[in-house]
Amino acid sequence: ALALGNGAVEAVCLPQGETQYSNLKDCTITGWGTLNENAPAVPQRLPRTGAIDVYEMSSCTTSSGYGIFEVTSGMTCAGRLDGRVDTCTGDSGGPLTCLENGRRVLYGITSWGKGCGRRGQPGMYTKVTKFLRWLNQFVR
Fold first, then answer.
1. Each residue of 85-110: pLDDT tens digit?
2. Which residue in 11, 37, 60, 106 could disulfide with 77, CB within 3.0 to 4.6 Å?
3. Contact 123, 79 (CB under 8 A)
């Protein structure tokens, strides 16, 4: 289920198979985390959401300066290259969903980033499609 900013909850679907992540459109991140890396953690009654873009991994591994952090094929990067929308401390485990045929589909799970909202350094997300076989064992 996905909590919406208006207090409602809706079901979220799993992807149907392999997907070209850079082709995803109308994507949103959701979380209860801080607004920036220097902000104190303040409890939120409702989660925040933000519209983001999903990028080719090559654009995130060559020029983004992730340094010693390992980037694998089970990850995708997303956010805004201008740094205006990103996940941050407290958002890990939250959903990255994209609208398809009127339904929200879970394509990513917030994982990590180098800081929060830094220009040219979008956040990293676990690729749900890499784990579909395992996930489908638990879905009825």
1. 999 999 999 999 999 999 999 999 99
2. 60
3. yes
